[in-house]
Model the fold of this input.
Amino acid sequence: MGVPLTPVSTPDAPGAIGPYSQAIKAGGFLFASGQIPLDPTTGTVTEGGITAQAHQVLQNLGAVLKGAGISYDRVVKTTVYLADMADFPAVNEVYATYFPAPAPARVTIQAAGLPRNVLVEIDLVAYLG
Done:
């Protein structure tokens, strides 16, 4: 028998736009799908450049974490996807305000194209225990 999979869904973050869940609880971990800078109420892309978009992405992920009953201090791994690696310093500055020390492990890559032509997308893994 496999590990039970429990979907997590909250109206406080943008809903899935395809056949995936906002997040899945499995084996003591939360696996959150990538979030882009969409306003969860209007569904529109956040304007104002990389800093505003990074904040919106992390607020969306925070809502998913809250929906799972945890917070940023349980995050063990993130993946940051940037449309332009030149935005790395600005995203780092925003990112540091959301994650307490020790910061989670992280990979940052430049992606050839992100959904809706956004500047940043982030996914994460968090420990539930």
Remarks:
- The chain has one domain: 6-127.
- The first helix runs from residue 49 to 67.
- The radius of gyration is 14 Å.
